[in-house]
Design brief:
Belongs to the iron-containing alcohol dehydrogenase family. This protein has two domains: 169 residues, Rossmann fold (3-Layer(aba) Sandwich), CATH 3.40.50.1970; 166 residues, Dehydroquinate synthase-like, alpha domain, CATH 1.20.1090. Helix content is 48%, strand content 13%. Bound molecules: nicotinamide-adenine-dinucleotide. Nicotinamide-adenine-dinucleotide binds next to helix 4, strand 8, helix 6 and helix 10.
Length: 363
């Protein structure tokens, strides 16, 4: 079997790499999408100084989990006021980066509902207008800076839209661990677990290959070692840097495989039970590991490189790891009955991401 790995993002990594934004956007008008706390942290001011007059539009009221209810106004204002800018820079967690991904896909009319209609069809489309995206993550988790996907939530309608086009691959990713120094403990843990979930989901995946495995194994080893230490020592630059790199590697892994069952389950848990994304897609990892084990020899070999040959010990290790971070690992802990959990898993297996899982009946 031959393998193919493709990731078109020009990726820069390291403390201080944010400064490269200036040379990357010379002679352009740019818009900035940034997380709300950035103003008080002095980061917005720093970016305004760095970008100077080329910065023509700022979106700073990004809410966790970008929702249609709020995106509509942001989108329509962007296309009304900043349609001429060439580049959108996203500086923030996955919510800011995914918001920017939605903004750069322009409809003919500038109407957000026209975009939703295109997304509802589930078919690929060529946008009437598009902008270039530069993504600088400020959390170590989503990997959205090296993937083309964006999740747009519709909490009121209890559904989500998945955006994925050629133009939603960022052109450049700037992963500067300095930007992550201010992330609070809870978000550090939940985003770190999102990255762990990306790495594992890329392994128990019908699209896995030896190249994605290499990124995934390295990310898992780093996260298992590093995240508990970082939680106790949030100001540690070295640990922030290792987690930033681990999240990037996990992002590279799933940029080629997509996610699988744990993420498919997570969407229900976020929409129906309000769980933060990183917790929703990681609390089931020990369970999903059990469902993956024994399905495929090559996948077992990769999982065993990380966890050794004993499934029970492997599940116990993952469970203990999550418990050590105060993350509960059973559906019941989140108010979901056994019967409801069964239905959620069954439904998730049939979702687009669930079908990537090696244990799904369609796999
Ligand atoms: N596109 C993808 O491939 C992909 C993958 C995973 C998740 N996601 C999406 O990403 C979103 C979650 O992103 P997230 O987990 O990074 O969280 P987030 O972006 O929602 O950020 C969490 C909180 O931390 C704050 N914050 C971010 N950076 C900070 C910093 N440096 N200092 C202080 N506070 C900071 C934010 O303002 C927010 O309140 C969800 O909508 C999810 O669907 C996308």
């Amino acid at each position: 079997m031959t393998a193919r790995f493709h990731n078109p993002v020009d990726t820069r990594f390291g403390c201080g790499s944010l400064r490269e934004l200036a040379s990357l956007t010379a002679n352009q008008d740019v818009a900035l999408v940034i997380f709300p706390e950035a103003r008080a942290l002095g980061l917005l001011n720093r970016l305004q100084l760095l970008l100077g007059e080329r910065l023509v539009h700022v979106v700073e009221d990004v809410q966790p989990n970008p929702d249609v209810a709020q995106l509509r106004d942001t989108y329509e204002r962007f296309w009304r006021e900043a349609a001429d800018c060439q580049t959108v820079i996203a500086v923030g967690g996955g919510s800011a980066i995914d918001t920017a991904k939605a903004l750069i896909v322009g409809t003919e009319s500038g109407s957000f509902d026209d975009l939703l209609e295109l997304l509802s069809s589930g078919r690929p489309f060529v946008p009437a207008r598009a902008k270039t995206l530069i993504a600088a993550p400020t959390t170590a988790g989503t990997g959205s800076e090296v993937t083309p996907w964006a999740t747009i939530w519709d909490t009121a309608g209890q559904k989500k839209y998945s955006l994925h086009l050629d133009c939603t691959w960022p052109k450049v990713a700037i992963v500067d661990p300095e930007l992550m120094m201010t992330v609070p403990a809870g978000v550090t843990v939940s985003t770190g677990l999102d990255a762990l979930s990306h790495a594992l989901e890329s392994i128990w995946n019908v699209n896995a290959n030896p190249i994605s495995d290499t990124f995934a194994i390295s990310a898992i080893e780093d996260i298992l070692d590093c995240l508990p230490k970082l939680r106790r020592d949030l100001g540690n630059r070295e640990l922030r840097s290792r987690m930033a790199q681990a999240a990037l590697k996990a992002g590279m892994a799933f940029s080629n495989t997509k996610t699988a069952l744990a993420h498919s389950i997570s969407y229900e848990m976020t929409l129906r039970y309000g769980l933060p994304h990183g917790i929703a897609c990681s609390f089931t990892l020990p369970l999903v590991l059990g469902l993956a084990w024994g399905r495929d020899e090559a996948r077992d070999r990769t999982l065993q490189r990380v966890f050794g040959p004993d499934l029970h010990k492997a599940q116990a290790r993952l469970r203990e790891f999550l418990h050590s971070l105060d993350v509960k690992t059973e559906f019941g802990d989140y108010g979901v009955t056994a019967k409801e959990a069964e239905a959620i898993i069954e439904f998730a297996m049939q979702g687009a991401r669930g079908r990537n899982f090696i244990g799904s009946r369609a796999a």
